[in-house]
Amino acid sequence: MIVDISWPSTVRANKASSTWPVVQAVQAMRSWMWPWLFCWSTLSTGATELPPAKMLQMGRIMQCTFCQILVSEVVDAAYRDLTDSAALRKLNKHCSDISSRIATLSGATSPKESEDFCARMVREHGGDLLDAKSMGEDLTSFCVQDDFCRPGRDAEADALVEGIMSNLGHKEDCAASSDTS
């Protein structure tokens, strides 16, 4: 079935698959448009009553959070001897593993939403992250250099990212200590 996303009447005519053109458009978007897309998609679906500025802020917060999560995962020694494709698969698996916790901590509507956001981050920027690691670059500034995180520009966003990361780290530490007992 071919749907022309340039004509809204096509979408209105086929209500059962009205989200398909949105999904297709999302796949074509560049990552710098995620916050705007997050804001637009939430408005168009009526999933939340947050104002657009707050939704845009949440999109940026999630970008920063997932970037930091992936950086902390790639720094792990287990990624040293993996091929790029194996490392990307492992990062996607990590996205699946943490999606429910991130959804709970961030207030996302579903773990699937968090998993999709993380998987997109892996798909679009995982290769750059692995390249930076293989070149011996300092990964602590990767998220700031690529403008995923904007420390100091929004204190509320910085606090929320820090809270999510510390809670996620605490739960991972608890899980690791219970595995060794």
Automatic annotation (TrEMBL):
Q: Which residues form the signal peptide?
A: none
Which top-level group of life is the source organism from?
Eukaryota
Q: Note the InterPro entries from the entry.
A: Saposin-like (IPR011001), SaposinB_dom (IPR008139)
Could you tell me which residue ranges the Saposin B-type domain spans? 60-153
Alphabetical UniProt keywords: Disulfide bond
The record's section on Gene3D superfamilies has: Saposin-like
Quote the protein name from its UniProt record.
Saposin B-type domain-containing protein
